[in-house]
Amino acid sequence: MEKLGWHFDFHSHKSVRIGHDPDFAGTAAALKDAGVDEVITFAKCHTGFSYFPTKVGTPHPRMKADVLGGMIKACRKEGIRVFAYLSFGIDGEAGRKRREWAQVYADGADYSDQSFINVCPFTGYTDELMLPHIDEIARKYRPDGFWFDTMGALGVCYCECCQREFREKHGLEIPRAQKESSWPIYGAFRRERGLALLERVGRFIHQRIPKAVVGFNQIGSAPYPEKMPRDITRLTLDPATYGHQSRGMGFCAAYAANADRPAEVMPTIFNQGWGDWSVSTAQRMEKVAAACWAHKVRLFMGDRLRPEGRLDGATLQAVKSFTELRQRLTPLFPPDASKADDEVLVVHSKSVVYGEDMREFAMDPRVRLGPLQGAHSILVDCGASFSIVSDLFLNAKLKRAGLVVLPELPAIEPQAHAALKRYVKGGGKLLVVGRIPNVRGKPMDWLGVSRAAKPWQDHIWLSAWPGMSQELPVLVRGEFRKVTLRGAQTMVRAIQPYDLAYGIRFGWGIGPASKRPSKQAALAMRKFGKGEVWYLEAPLFSDYFSGGNWQQIEWMYGLLEQIQPKARARLHQPAGNVELVMRRSPKSTWAVLVNHGGEEFAAGKLPWSRALAPSPAYPVTVELRDRRSPKRVTCNGAECPFERRGAVLHVPLAMDAAWKVVRVDWDDA
């Protein structure tokens, strides 16, 4: 069964009437009808107000009903689990009453006389307010769990407490500029005590409610790829609400599916994210739901409760959409007992977002995810069956991998490096793109190549593979370094810019390619044990993320064909936009197709996504390699035509819906 939760935002100014006309029973009944089995409801918001009659915190001054208690009681009656939301690190009321608790930036303390204030949890805030507040909620309501927001609490802070602790730990002053030599020490210091604080809070909760679910928003997700303490039992992937939504949810779900504990993805029901009350279209909500459920990841829809304590019309419309969607989707999607069959594993590392020396910890991590997101997008568009895994959990996922991809990683964990070496020696295939990752400060030394210290060009071209729609060289922008072969052989040579060197452009832009390839290897391959290591020097993934060059899709498809000529599954899709997610059981194979096409973007400062109508049909073909004979092949429950060519089953389709499910039942299973 596809899992559905509902998150009710409730950040409220002091002038708003709270709980003056509640309908908790009606709210819970409507959620139950839609198949919602978990709810996050507010105990305390960013403004610092509590939504129950607290003796520890600050009750909302215009609160009439006990909103937290009413929601918990009504939802429990319907069999829905309830998690109490507490803002963690933003607390306007606490910051106004105790100015010494406010976070202090390089230019001074945070302060607002009306709204949010960022507070530092390493002051007395945690012991004097947060933990007593948690204890009060646990004793009074015994919720099924606690959900904490936001992780800005782990950022840079110059408050007296932080300065004193850093001085005591390292004998240093907190640096004021990132260029200072002590900045990496400070980043590692923030990370260490941040994780210790999370562990402490989780343990505190479980001492009171042993089986409580405990989660901290985003920690453990792609921007913070950590192995969480034992007492943090749930991961929440809360992606940006602007930009391409179904691809964004697919990216998060592909990562969440390989986490070491239950994980959820949280899109909003709104047209412009949390800052908007206008409901998104049912078409867009269906796309993001399919992107999550294809990977068997819980969907937690982000919403808002009306101040009265009841559902808004936008919510009722969304709930109705999900009721209808689940009726159509659940009988067709793979059962929970099926297993993921991702053939390609894309590896993520905390070095991507923190830097190798931790200097960037909790500092705008999303902006450094470009290469990983580019790898996700181009693999979607070229029809690979893949998922994303942290290098902390790689070893457990290698058994069925046909190819492992390292997407421009600065560094990789030593245990993952050792596992990769064993995997390739045993017959696996590895593709390293854009740079050679470090292991304990030194480059991986068995890839068969080394890189020059300085870049040679700031863009190069790659020769087209035979059969590409246009046999023209493919441009890849970004630093390209000369490669020395150390056991590898050249597979593709770089075509350099015509007569130009690094940092020099043809006028203001990019000029033509040279007529002939250079002597420099762009793609090299080394036999290693029974397996192969492929190395692409060009930063293909980050360029695809920023530029979306359509020729790069075809080139990547051709590269996969070179490395994996006998892939278990592939989606042939000239137009791109369709994500392939494979699952299997002993008797059946499922190919879930998620249509990322059809989103358009409103003009404005941020690219707000909307999907107003179904997409035009794309011709696609699902290709499955299996020596067994198909007994029955269906698409969304109806039998569909197929063709057998040797060991490969070809299923042609028109992708004319938000999602489709191809199911093959095997005759001799």
What this model shows, in words?
This protein has 669 residues and is α/β, with parallel strands linked by helices. The chain folds into three domains: 4-238, TIM Barrel, CATH 3.20.20; 340-566, Class I glutamine amidotransferase (GATase) domain (Rossmann fold); 571-666, Sandwich (Immunoglobulin-like), CATH 2.60.40. Strands 1-2-5-8-9-10-11-12 form an eight-stranded parallel barrel, surrounded by four helices. The radius of gyration is 26 Å and the shape is globular. The relative contact order is 0.09. The model has no long low-confidence stretch (mean pLDDT 95).
Furnish the topology, listing elements before pairings.
Elements: E1 4-9, H1 24-33, E2 38-44, E3 49-50, E4 58-59, H2 67-77, E5 81-87, H3 92-97, E6 104-105, E7 108-109, H4 125-141, E8 145-149, H5 160-170, H6 183-206, E9 213-217, E10 234-237, H7 245-256, E11 263-265, H8 282-293, E12 298-304, H9 313-329, E13 339-340, E14 344-348, H10 350-354, H11 370-381, E15 386-390, E16 403-407, H12 414-425, E17 429-433, E18 438-439, E19 442-443, E20 449-451, E21 457-462, E22 474-480, E23 483-485, E24 489-493, E25 521-528, E26 531-536, H13 540-547, H14 550-563, E27 569-572, E28 578-584, E29 588-595, E30 600-601, E31 609-610, E32 618-625, E33 630-635, E34 638-639, E35 643-645, E36 648-655, E37 659-666
Parallel strand pairs: 1-2, 1-12, 2-5, 3-4, 5-8, 8-9, 9-10, 10-11, 11-12, 14-15, 14-16, 16-17, 17-26
Antiparallel strand pairs: 6-7, 13-28, 18-19, 20-23, 21-22, 24-25, 25-26, 27-32, 28-29, 29-37, 30-31, 32-36, 33-34, 33-37, 35-36
